[in-house]
Amino acid sequence: MIELLTGIEKPGRYTGEEWGAVIKQSSEVSLCLIYPDLYEVGMSNLGQKVIYEIVNNLPFASAERAYLPGVDMCK
Questions:
Q1: Which of 2, 52, 67, 66 shows the shortest CA–CA distance to 22?
Q2: Residues near 55 by beta carbon (within 8 Å), at least 6 away in sequence
Q3: What is the rounded CA–CA span in Å between residue 44 and residue 34?
Q4: Whole-angstrom Cα distance, residue 53 to residue 15?
Q5: What confidence score (pLDDT) does residue 1 get?
Q6: Residue 1 belongs to what H/E stretch?
Q7: How far is CA 40 from each of CA 19, 45, 60, 72, 74, rounded to the nearest angstrom?
Q8: Which of 37, 34, 40 is nearest to 10 (CA)?
Q9: How many CB atoms lie within 10 A of CB 39?
Q10: From CA 74, how far away is CA 14, in angstroms rounded?
Q11: Angstrom distance (rounded) from CA 56 to CA 52
Q12: How far apart are the C-alpha atoms of 63 and 55, rounded to whole Å?
């Protein structure tokens, strides 16, 4: 992982160690909310935050988030 992130402008986009993330060990329903832009843009979207919280408050469901990679990661 360290080799992959060497030379990346903002490696925090890709580590998955964000503050406030919900981590569930298992659930009957899992879904991934994919935002069609960079991490910084998607995390500022209120709609995505609301859906993420609603789904993760359900005892049987879990939600993860994914974003487009930055230009520096695509090289």
A1: 52
A2: 31, 61, 62, 63
A3: 14
A4: 21
A5: 65
A6: none
A7: 13, 9, 29, 15, 17
A8: 40
A9: 19
A10: 12
A11: 6
A12: 6
Maximal CA-CA distance, the chain: 40
* Three-state secondary structure readout of 14-37: CCCCCCCCCCCCCCCEEEEEEECC
Tokens of 9: 């402008």
Residues 6+ apart with CB under 8 A from 60: 27, 28, 29
User: With 90 as the cut, is the pLDDT of residue 57 above it?
Assistant: yes
Type of residue numbered 73: M
Task: Give 15-46 pLDDT, tens digit per residue.
Answer: 777 777 888 888 999 999 999 999 999 999 99
Q: Could you tell me the residue ranges of all domains in the chain?
A: 2-74
3-state secondary structure of 74: helix
